Amino acid sequence: MPSTDTPLVRLRDVHLAFGATPVLKGIDLTVGKGQAVSIIGPSGSGKSTILRCLTGLLKPQRGELTVAGTAVHQLHGEAAHRPLRQRVGFVFQQYNLFPHLSVLDNLTVAPRKVLGLPAREAREQALALLAKVRMQHKAAAFPGELSGGQQQRVAIARALAMRPELILFDEVTSALDPEMVGEVLNVIGELTEEGMTCVLVTHEMRFAEGISDQVYFTEHGVIVEHGSAEQLFNHPGEARTQAFLQHALGQPGRRRIPDTYVLRNLSPYHLSV
């Protein structure tokens, strides 16, 4: 079990509003090194906002955020945030690949320019990462020639190319066709198995249950309940959590994902609901 003695991420009483509209209302959240933590909840509950606060893309009006020893809430200006963003990978809903660059060049440009890697080392690293996400055969392709699932796997590899201590996933399957979801979730599952510290915002409940050390359920900008995946999914203590999970897991006609997921024991997990 990953150690949580020295948290890699700590949020304390974080408040953020857009104008007169409160979005986060006192968020407390902790992520230990090597943990996989999922944030679940209805749309508009503040999940993605939490991730953006962690990298300084959004600045709370109140509270403390610490990531890898950096007091994010005390940073001001783009230059001050740059070292933090080199240590934190962010994979978005949209792939955000450079359309004019090949897959291989998408993975080498930042390590060369930001980390100062020699061209040969950056290329070797990129090819190894593409093999890791099973995309080495598309190294010479351009993003427009790839499916959505393939582009998202390349985006994950690009985030890993910066050698982050933490990687954030913001609804990375929401824009994908159902048959492409599993190939992306497999890659994320393998990363958590290898001990990469991950924070995921996701609507894929069965996946979150299978890979998460801790799960946070948010609604209306507050943490309603959090605990281990086993506790929260099987024995939720709050009525609102129970209602959300019943709706998310038990509603007829919800999206089915016919694929295999890799979970913590590295055995295949089939979505059987």
Automatic annotation (TrEMBL):
It holds the Pfam family ABC_tran. It is a peripheral membrane protein. It is found in: Cell inner membrane. It comes from the Bacteria. InterPro entries: AAA+_ATPase (IPR003593), ABC_ATPase_HisP-typ (IPR030679), ABC_transporter-like_ATP-bd (IPR003439), ABC_transporter-like_CS (IPR017871), MetN_ABC_transporter-like (IPR050086), P-loop_NTPase (IPR027417). Keywords: Amino-acid transport, ATP-binding, Cell inner membrane, Cell membrane, Membrane, Nucleotide-binding, Transport. GO terms for molecular function: ATP binding. The keyword Repressor does not apply. Its main location: membrane. Residues 9-245 form the ABC transporter domain. Belongs to the ABC transporter superfamily. This is Amino acid ABC transporter ATP-binding protein.
